[in-house]
Amino acid sequence: MLLAKVIGTVVSTRKEESMQGLKFLLLRQVDIDGQESGGFVVAADAVGAGVGEIVLYASGSSARQTVMTDKRPCDAVVMAIVDTWEVGGAVKYRKVETEPSVAEI
Known about the structure:
Layout lengths: L1 E9 L13 E7 L5 E10 L8 E6 L16 E6 L2 E4 L2 E5 L11
Parallel strand pairs: 3-5
Antiparallel strand pairs: 1-2, 1-4, 2-3, 4-5, 6-7
């Protein structure tokens, strides 16, 4: 599993039939301090993640082992939204909850 930040979405109205119904997210890997540092990947979203969140994703054959991606030609999947992580007793990241906007209510 790898840590990444959701930096956008990918919309595809025409796709392989078995990929219908999947939401795609654009991810960028982050370093141990949560700073964007690695490459980019498009991943299927199995957990309802949103732009700006830090997530855990799997790639390769592991990406096809979630309920949503089973038997689908998927090479990366977001499988967790990170709440917090720490290294050596120091908190490196903590998710900040925001109030819903008027449009979300």
